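Exercise: predict the fold of this chain.
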Amino acid sequence: MLKKILRLMVLVLSVSIAQAQSPNITGKVSDENGEGIPGISVTIKGTQQGTITTVEGTYSISADKDAVLVFSFVGYVKQEVPVNNRQKIDITLLPDTKALEEVVVVGYGTQRKIETTGSIASVKADELTQLPITNVAQGLQARVSGIQINQNSGSPGGNISVRIRGTNSINGNSEPLYVIDGIQISNSGGINDVSPLSTINPNDIESVEVLKDASASAIYGARAANGVILITTKRGKSGNTRVSLESYYGVQQVTKTLDVLNAAEFAQLENETFKNTAYPNPSSLGEGVNWQDLIFQKAPIQNHQLTISGGSEKTQLSLSANYFDQDGVIINSGFKRFTYRLNVDHQVSKRLRVGTSIMGSFSNNKGIEAGATSVGDAGVVTGSVIGAAIGAPPTLQPYRADGSIFPFAEQGNGQYREVINPLNYTNILLKRNIKRALINLYGEYTILPGFTYRASFNADVDNRLHDTYSPISNIAIKDRNDNSGSASKTNRNFLNILHESVLSYSKKIGANHSLKFTGLFATQTEKYNDNQISATGFPNDATKNEALQLALNRTVSSFRSSQRLDSYMGRINYGFRDKYFLDLTARVDGSSKFGANHKYGFFPAVSAAWRIIEEPFMKDIRWLSDMKLRASYGITGNAGGLDPYQSLSTVAAGGGYNLNHTYQTAIRPSGIANPDLRWEKSAQTNVGIDASFLNNRISLIVDYYYKKTNDLLYIKTLPLSSGYASINGNYGSLENKGVEFAANATILDGPVKWSLSGNLTINRNKVLDLDGGTTTERFITNYTLLKVGQPLGVFKTYVFDGINQTGEAIIPGYDGRLGGHKVKDVNSDGVIDSKDQIITGNPNPKFIYGFSTTVGYKGFDLSAFFSGTQGNDIYNVSRLSFENPLGQRNLFQGVENRWTPENPSNQYVSPAVAGRLPISSYAVEDGSYLRCKNLMLGYTVPAIKGINRLRVYVSANNLFTVTKYSGFDPEVNTYAGSNTAIGIDNLVYPQAKSFLGGIQLTF
């Protein structure tokens, strides 16, 4: 059926093209069996003129007698045939077997793609950089099955979380391990932090491999429980020197703003709430100040890269420099990055090869506090710039007459001193300067043919300076005191040093057998220190935080830690007739962080593959190009949830003590020793199938996996008589299981080129144990729950049941009122209490997906890329605050339809000073969405002397989102990379859509 559909499409297109020509050459294109091949591209060399073969493989084209015809299609070897004054040309195209030799990067080496037995996905550079991305993880979003990537904050350089096959820890780190040219790094951070991945230039990347199952990632042992992402940067090649310039410039803007009350509506509500006439004539106030318009802006974004590469047979070099500058859509926020890269490979002798990879960057981030993590009113909700802009009264003024920011406490007789002018947050200095260098030095020596030793020395050097200053001018004049004005300077230094020695032996035994052995010893040391000085009480704002000695109050703190990891690994790869493959891996890791009884962990894996297509009984199935069945089982570890020294008895600097009427600082006990503290371990089973059809025009990958993680690090509560509140131990357990689908299709490969690709992931997550059976559920926030038998992060709340109407009885147990929110008495006992709280939402999607398409014709290319999730819930915390008319702050527009005796609304409550809404399912919303991530139109200019390639393009990004969610963006999480508090929106920095134009030039 698939072949019939394809032939019908080819027929329609070939007829339309043929009708536009006056053919004088005809012929037939056949395969090695003599059957006609439909859809083969037939073009005249050096021109855009061409046609495609019909369903029978025939073609007709008009060409000069000395022209050269080019016959090509994916899956076949291209042929060039001179016309030589002939009128009939029949040819035979042979299958292109180079797919059998395609190489993918695996840990500590490469493999032919047909030899891989694990679940590995590859993404090329042109796919990664199709969007204007700050870091590599953004480029992977929705392009690889099995990966859920959330842009938690839309701030430039902002936080992003990556989950490969679900969340694998409760208190630990669930981010994958990133390996960049052998250098291992991690991604982490809070909602207002800069992602560590943002310091690395994605334009330098050649390809990315995602190791998803245990057999593929077990070679990284203790750091591989969350999967591994291998990143290979561009290296030089022998030949002529090539110079490339890539540049784009664009403009960003918010995708939407939230509707709030205007000044007239707000004033009327204030009068009703406080039962006074503070605003004698509300209707005369009109629209008032639009605070969202004041904090949001159209912001430029630009990127410029110069790359030089080339070399001789002995030495190859690649050098690049990049400048990236992104202003934020909130004023006074932005991210700048300067990077350079140098890759050199040199063949010293026939046996010795050496090289280096050096990537350096300097980043400057101007941050804005966005996204409160607490549920509350007034000061809590408006404690970030977005919340402040929503809640700011439209009747107040942003600036004084002299242009300075006008504190609300100085307006309206001080009535609004609990609400903050949102411009205050844009006036706060929050700057991060990050200097980072990733350095790899290697030497590779061939001891005997097929037997090599490779030594590498890697370093990740990361130095950060954080500057903060909250100016005195933000404070109302009457409220200023000796503590006004606060500042800090923090120096943070990270050093990660890794040495790896790798022995590898590869041997072809006869015509049928292949064997490869890899052995590894590695030792890694991580060091961290920070020094901070904080101060309050400045005489003025003149020096900001550059003269902390001027402050009346100063505090100093410092911290230092160190950890070490030693590793041993062995791997055997065996192949038979390119039909059967077997991989065995074993790794031992020893960490200084774990208890004396469990310093070392053992992480084995086994996997096998069977290329069914090579069996004799498959030879006559011509529509099937390849088919491989894979299966694997392995154990990987995770130490990311444990800081150094937690297995030991520890002390820390404590609070002050009053001894003999003298204030003394002291050291206090802070942690109990646990010699049994050990690795979190994930055991994973994977079964997959790789298939391609119609001479590799269509490919399909399907995987099923089951992953169980035991010995999860969890904080267990202790009786107060112990002298300690809790102990960290290996108590928890959870599982992830799912199915992944990925498909690619080349529909047309003639004058018109058309390709499609897509992926879909279904993952189910469940908590199996928390603390050894003592506790079955535990609240993480006021509404987020960990519960045995349920997915991570489900919402447990009261059930919203409308509004208390006139004449209805109010059930005791909660602060109900006439016109207030009503919640269900779930157990029908006549009282509202914790027993009436049930699970009302699940932030984990039923499935995630992405798909893209590209069409090309005569130098033009048009591509579109979409991503989405389905079935996940979002807890929209802001609704509990901004749909509750308690006075002094503005609200969402819907409150205009609030409850009154004359307007018995069943959604929006009546005004009540200091009233609160119960935490209920009212705030749970469907977070499903479909987003157009990218729409791009490009044109490659025909050949120009001296220029290898010139392409110009325009692009629209985050163009539109189809969703029922009422907030700024359904792709959001206030708690950033948390494993347990997920799917929560308390007005974080929104994502932007952008429109840009660019050029790609190579000569």
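Check your answer against the key: The first helix runs from residue 2 to 18.
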